[in-house]
Amino acid sequence: MKRIALFTLLLAPLLAFAQPAPAGKLAPFIYNDLLLIDRISGLAVDPAGTKAIFSVRATDMEKNRGVSTLWMKDLVDPAKPELKLPASEGGANGVQWLADGSGFFFLSARSGSNQVWRADATGTHAVQVTTLPLDVEDYRISPTGKGLVVAMAVFPECKGFEITCTEKIRETREAAKASGTVYDKLFLRHWDTWKDGTRNHLFYIDLNKPEAAPIALTDGLDGDVPSRPFGGNEDFCYSADGSTVFFSLRAAGTREPWSTNFDIYSVPVSGGAAQNLTAENPAWDAAPVISPDGKTLAYKAMKRPGYEADRFEIRLRDIATGKTRTLASEWDRSVADMKWSRDGSSLLVTADDLGKHRLFRIDIKSGQVLPLSRDGHLDAFAETPKGFVFLKSGLSGPAQLYAAKPKAAFIDADAMPLTAFNAGLKEKAFGAYEQFSFPGWNNETVHGYVLKPANYEEGRKYPVAFLVHGGPQGSFGDAWSYRWNPQTYAGAGYAVVMIDFHGSTGYGQAFTDAINQHWGDRPLEDLQKGWAFALSKYAFLDGARAAALGASYGGFMMNWIAGNWPDAFKCLVSHCGIFDTRAMGYSTEELWFTDWENGGSVFAKPENYEAFNPMLHVAQWRAPMLVIHGDKDFRVPLTQGIGTFTACQSKGIESKYLRFPDENHWVLKPQNSKQWHDTVFGWLEQHIGKRE
After folding, report:
1. In this predicted structure, what is the pLDDT of residue 692?
2. Residues 558, 573: contact at Cβ < 8 Å?
3. Would residue 190 show up in a list of annotated catalytic residues for this protein?
C-alpha cells in the first residue's frame, strides 16, 4: 500500500499558475456573475449509455429563487445540442432510469405535493405515478421496474397505520388554537427546523397494484431514512432481484444528538421486521450499494463512535454468509460517493485528496487503488458501456458535463466537453491559481492555494483576502463554490490565500484528527506559518493590506484571531462564528460534534471548553469586524453572532452586524446572497481598498 500512497503523491506536484481564462483585459468575473450562472448537477445516464439527463438550476432574481429544469444530452451523437425536457416543466429532480431504458422517473411538486412522476425516454411526456397523501421525500425504483420504495415523514408511534394516522395527527394539530409544543427529549431543532415528531420512513409501492396500500418497511422504528437533514436515496438500495431493501438508520431513542451510530438494515419489500446487519459496529455505517451479481453488499463504515469526521472506509458483506471484510484498509482517504463498476470487479469512489476531489477505482480482490482523475472536483460520474461521463468543476469554473476519451489514463485528461452552459464566462477574466506547501505544525507538510487577481499585472502588489474554511474538517481546494468562491475576490481585485490547516480533509486521517481538542493552537500555527510563507514566496501579496474572512469554524477562527493574532489583518469578517464555546456546547443541536471536538461535555470537561474560547480573549480585540448571522442557524445559534457583535461594540471597535432573519447556517436566497456580497466587498474596500 505504500506504493499506492507514493504514486498518489507523485501525481500532485506543486502546480505552475493555472490560468483558467484567456489572458488580456477582459471584464473580471465578479459575484454578480456568480449569482446568475447556471448550476449543473444530478447526472443520470440510461443503462445503454446513450442519453445523459442532468438538472440545470437558473436564478430568478425577481422571484428570489432558483428554477431547476431537466436537460438531456445525446451521448451517441455529442454534436447535437443538449435539450431542455418538456417533462420537467413545473419542476423536476431526482431522475432515475428504468433498467430497460424505456423511460425515467423523477420527483415533482407540480400537483401540489411532492410525488413520483414517470416520463418517456425522450422526456417529452410525463404522468403522475403516486398520489400519496404525504410528500415523497425521496425514492428508488426497483431493478425490475415493478415497484417503488418511497420515503415519507410519518409519526413513528402510528405503528401499523403510519400514513392514515399521520394524516389525522396533522389535521388535529392544524385545528388546534394553542401554539405550544411540548418536548421530552432532544433534538428540539435540527439545522434550521424545529422538530415536529415525524420520522422519514420507507414504504414499498407495487406498481402492478396501484390500488394496494403502500407496505410499511420501517414501521415503528424511531429513526430517519433518509437521515436528516441532508440524507438522500444513497441511504437505501434494493437487492439485485428487488425482493429486499437495505437501508442505513440511526436508532434515535433519547441519545440521538450524541450518537453517530447508524446501522445497515435489511427488510423484505413484502414487509416485516427489519434485521440489523451491523449491530457489532457502534459507529457510522452508511450508503449501502449492491454488486451487479447481487452477491455482495458494499457500504461505508467508521470505527469511532461519536466522531462524524472519522475515516469512511469500505466494508464488503457476503449476502449468503454474512461475512464482512474491509477493502483497501491501508488507503488513508475517506470515501465520499461510491458505485460498483459495471462488471462488478471494482468499486468506483470519490474522495478528497491533497486539495482536490478525485475519482478512484478500487479492485475488489486485491484492494489496489488506482486514481482515475487528476485535479479539480469530480461532482458526479457514470460508467457507460463506452466509458465514463462525468460532471467536473474546480477553481477554473463551474461544473460541465464531459466524456472521457477511450483508454485514457485519467478520465479528465483531454476529456470531451459535452455541454457549454455559461458560455459567457469565456469572456471573463479569472484569477490564475497555484497550489503550494510549507512546513506547518509539528513540521508536517501543509498545503494551500494562492490566486492572483483577475487581469493580474506583473510587478504590482495587491490587497489580499485570507479565506479560512469551515468544518473544521473540510477543505478550501480546487473546487467551485456558490457561497465562498475565491474567484469572486480575484474578480474584485484581491489576491487570495487559502490554507488547508491541520483538521482539513484529504491529507490522511491523522492530519484530520490533529484538530481534535486543538481548535486554537495547531490550526492557528498553520495559518500563521502559511501566511508568512505565502508573503515570502509571492511578491504580489500586499501583507499590509489584508483581510481575513471565514464562516462556521472559519468564523470561530476569525473570533480567535481577533484575540490571539490581533494585528495581522486590517479587518475581519466572521460569518456564523462561534464566540463562546461553553454556550455552544449547550445550545447547538448535534452534540456529538462539540463533545468529540472538546473531549467531553461542557460539565464533564469545562477546562477543555475554556482552552480555546474566543470570549475569554476579547480584551485583546482591536481589528474592525463585520459579523454575519442567520436567525435560522441552529448549528451555531444566533446568540453566538450577537455575542461577537456585542463584544466589538462594547470595546468601541468599528463593527457591523448583518442579520438574515430567513437564512440558516448558509445564505441561499439570491437576493440575500447579493446583499451578503455587497456588504462583504464594501467592508473590504473600506478597510483594505481595491487594486490601485
Report:
1. 59
2. yes
3. no
Asked, for residue 634, whether it belongs to a domain, the answer is: yes
Please give the tally of structural domains in the chain. 1
Average pLDDT over residues 419-423: 94
Cell of 533: 510563507
How distant, in Å, are the alpha carbons of 441, 453, 487, 489 from that of 478? Answer: 23, 16, 11, 15
**Is 309:473 a contact under the CB 8 Å cutoff?**
yes
Terminus-to-terminus CA distance in the chain, angstroms?
51
**Is residue 502 within 8 Å of residue 440, measured between CB atoms?**
yes
How far apart CA 248 and CA 273 sit, in angstroms, is 15
Q: What is the pLDDT of residues 6-17, one digit of tens each?
A: 323 333 333 456
In the set 552, 574, 655, 673, the catalytic residue is: 552
* 672 lies in some domain: yes
Tell me, what amino acid is at 86?
Answer: P
**Could you tell me the three cell numbers for 121?**
425516454
Kindly provide the residue ranges of all beta strands, DSSP E only, lying in 61-142, ordered along the sequence. 65-74, 83-84, 93-97, 103-108, 115-120, 126-128, 138-141
Residue 250 resides in a domain: no
The DSSP result for 405-449, as a single string, is PTT-SSTTSSPEE---TTGGGGGEE---EEEEEEE-GGG-EEEEE
Residue type, 562: A
Query: Residue 573 has which C-alpha cell?
Result: 469578517
3-state secondary structure of 84: strand
- From CA 411, how far away is CA 387, in angstroms rounded? 9
Could you identify the residue written with the cell 439545522?
Answer: 191
Q: How far apart are CA 514 and CA 516, in angstroms?
A: 6
Burial (CB count within 10 angstroms: exposed 0-12, middle 13-18, buried 19+), residue 481: middle
Alpha helices in 519-630 (DSSP H): 522-537, 553-564, 581-587, 591-597, 606-611
Cell numbers describing residue 321: 454468509
- Do 284 and 235 meet the contact criterion of CB atoms below 8 Å apart? no
For residue 327, being part of any structural domain is answered with no
User: Is 633 an annotated catalytic residue?
Assistant: yes
Name the residue range of residue 575's domain.
Answer: 426-688
Q: Angle at CA 379, nearest 5°, toward 440 and 489?
A: 55
Is 329 tagged catalytic? Answer: no
CATH of the domain at 639: 3.40.50.1820
Per residue in 41-88, pLDDT (tens digit) is 999 999 999 999 999 999 999 999 999 999 999 999 999 999 999 999
pTM, two decimals, is 0.95
The residue annotated as part of the active site, out of 33, 138, 580, 633, is 633
Distance CA 509, CA 353 (A): 11
Cell 487503488 sits on residue: 369
Say which DSSP state 66 is in. E
DSSP string, 285-353: EEEEEE-TTSSEEEEEE-SSTT-TTS--EEEEEETTT--EEEESTT----EEEEEE-TTSSEEEEEEEE
